[in-house]
Fold these 2 entries.
Entry 1:
Amino acid sequence: MIDLENVAYSYGGGELLSDITLRLSPGSFHFLTGPSGAGKTTLLKLFYGALMPTAGHVRLFDADVRELTRDDIAMARRRIGVVHQDCQFLNHLTVTENIALPLLVSDRDMLAEDANLRELINWVGLTQRANALPPELSGGERQRAALARALIMSPDVILADEPTGNVDWEMSQRLMRLLVELNRMGKTIMIATHDLALIRAAKSQVQARVLRISNRSLQLAGADL
Amino acid sequence: MKLPKLDMEQVRGLLSGDAGADRVVPPTGYTAWLTLFAAGAMAFLAVFALALSLATARLADRWGDALARSSTLRISAPEGQMIAQTDAALNVLQTTPGIATARALDAGEQRALLEPWFGPDLPIESLPIPQLIEIIEEGAGYDAAGLRLRLAAEVPGAVLDDHTRWREPLVRAASRLRLLGWLSLVLIAGTVAAMITLAANAALSANAQVIGVLRLVGARDRYIVLAFVRRFTLRSLSGAAVGTVLGCLAVMLLPRAEIGGGFLTGLGFQGWHWIWPLTIPLLSGGVAYLATRAAAQRTLKDMP
């Protein structure tokens, strides 16, 4: 689905990531961990074409990102659901409209998708808040709305950057259960988090690989978690 | 200047409308009214600049044409020789290439010319009035210097006035005015473009978050550009339409005093020239379309 081959990324000053090789295969579940500033978010951005690698190759659905046009990247993003820690919405549209936004921008038939949309909103537990505006939502509600928006196009891959960063333990467990459920439905999941307790709790529910960024490179974390 | 390629699909999308794409750009409140007002005011001014350009063009043509195609020969001679000299002059004129007709004005016509100055009761027969001959040119006209030489030899009392000294400064002034009118139109179009670019840039940077979200959920650039372009094009189009209608009304309400052929009172549109002001809203919309599209594409280039 998404392949990284000897990828390096450097900001103006120094190299942040170097020589990273990783393959996200269909149905896999990955945790990405490491200290703050280690490059978790940067690595995720490389996954959905928001950043270009400074060396090596990133392939989105078997196409090298350097050869993709902006429209190609937009099309790839319809197959990749992204949930940010501080998820952004269109604040003048309701929760329902925000969740349906990916359908709107890709010219899908909204009427045909209406049942899906309701079901999804129900699944993330936002039916009561469907007509609220994003600024009126709590942290947990925002995260669930962002997750629903990431899922509405039924993407192949879900990338979540600290999805539980702004919510309490109980809500983070609820979000994790939703993500685990998605993985059982065959979606590829990648979650960046520095919360080791979250990873430990999830490991009992799903077979997940834990990757750690340290010293600019990616290592498979052992059983020490 | 390389004209930007007009994307027909985008133009169709612009006209057919997409309520959804419109919704993704937040409403902007009073800045929308500022854009409308500015587009309207510019269109109003454009109507006058256009009227000025067309009126001066007409004026220059009229002065240029009417005066250039005719000249006057004035014969001052002692009473006894007047008829002989007039005949001699007519003879010379009729054999000069480039002259279609040469006609001596009769007493009635000469009296009519003098009437504004001396009143209707002038006993013209008793005065030593010079005889006037009206010359109408054809083709490329005649050689004035050559004709003067021939007349000097054969009709000593004749003075040729080819109206050059009247015509030239008038035509020059008219063309200068027309140039100023067109320059004003260009400046107005440039101002509309600058104003729309500023408004669009402000809207685009105020909506950087919206654009970021749209890109994240897989919107193509075309979709995002169109959402902004549509809003500003329609705004500029409707503002300019109102301004044009008001401008045209103002031109129509100008007092008519066409008899004098005066310059200021001739300001306005005649016949099919009324089509021209109708193009102002379209041009304004076109300028807004190109300005917003350029601004949106510039903004998007920096967005992943």
Entry 2:
Amino acid sequence: MIAALVAVDVTTYGWVTALKVGVVLALIPAGALILGYVFLMKMMSHMQSRLGPMEAGPHGVLQLVFDGIKFLQKEDIFPDRSDRRVFALAPLVVMLSTFLLYIVIPAGPRLVVEDLDTGIFFALAVSSLSVIGILMAGWSSANKFSLMGGLRAAGQLIAYELPLVLAVVGVVIQAGTLSLQGIVGAQAAFDMSFFGLFTIPSIGYFIPQFFGFIIFMIAVQAELTQTPFDMPVAESELVAGFMTEYTGFRFLFFFMGEFGTAFAFGALASTLFLGGWYIPFGFHDGLLGDLQGVIVLFTKIMIVSFFVFWVRFTYPRFREDQLQTFAWKWLIPLSLLNILATAVFKVVF
Amino acid sequence: MPAKPQVPGLLKGLGVTFRTMMRPAVTVQYPHVKETPAPRARGVIALKEENCTVCMLCARECPDWCIYIEGHNDLAPPRREGGKPRRSPKLDRFDIDFSLCMYCGICVEVCPFDALFWSPEFEYSEMDIGDLLHEKRRLGEWMTTVPEPPALEAGAEVKKGKK
């Protein structure tokens, strides 16, 4: 969309592309830092009746920045028998998947890096790229814990990819488009009227698609390997799973990938179910629309992430077989039912 | 058997973490905010030198062997004319190595002459572990921080000759 606004000659195209890449590259650590600080450090601490970091900056806001600097100073260790090239590449693959996720997420009427017609399909496709990176990391580390973690991650991510996609299908059927901007527009046009008595202005699809939303959030929890589903990095069983052998900035990449993806999935969930950058009675075009869109989307991401991390800090870990049972015997049939119901309603009304 | 979802219990769990989050944290930001320890807290052991008779009971009972005592007997004039001169034990050295001490308090319990006391002071960490060996003078200085003993129960007899 941004590209469409400017005349397409080579230099402008180059500059715009550089700007887009820069924005996305800045978004990943920014999102990771915000989620890491607000939820991982502060919210978890208070849920455990403690304060968390308090010394680095006011209320410890700079703690993660300093942690990052510390990681950069660490020695870059390769295990003796590791497959060096694959080992070095794995964090980058995970990061790449996060990076590509940000491309299609709209943050305002014009603020989207690339408004693909198949936006949500693209997002779900690139999000599963991280499985390859995790498998690479697990395999190349020459460590049984890493291998176990990598295989568990592969099994888990593939199992939960299905309910994730199937839950999104309900939204896609209702909106009638795969484009994320289109889905936001469809939600904006969607008013719920109760038998003509009164009308609620659009607050997104999470009421008609309530079951889809719940299934989507559970699957997101598993995709992000957050706690009830954190077998791949189960620290009491597998040290740190596929991350066991990683140090320094390569570990930092995994960390930023995890929380950057959490931020992106928060944005996806808000876009699909909560109306994205749209709020009723707000600005819906122009510069003000864009500015408001960023704030609205950010607020929605924080609300969604709050629930993700709230669940993370509350529940203990599933057992591996319980995890698979839950995905294949409960979530996938339920999401298929959801699709069926959505399709029926779509045809009837 | 398929896993049976226990939804009410899950919600209850979420409620617990949420309520905990809303309550103020129990953490005390130590160097900035100081908690007052309980009056009888086991912080450091103080020595009242004039009560010590160099009986070595504390050093012998200490499970960590962290008390070092040296002493000698001075001769005091006899109580009656023509009697034997009395022994008057003098303490030369009384050290407690707090890097070994496990704060069990057996020395304080076992002392028959009330020469050892608990003080609630706890801020005596050192950069060098050797400095944790408190000598007689330093143990004596802790006496100023020992709280008054609790009042006797009503009707209790006060021992004669005791202050």
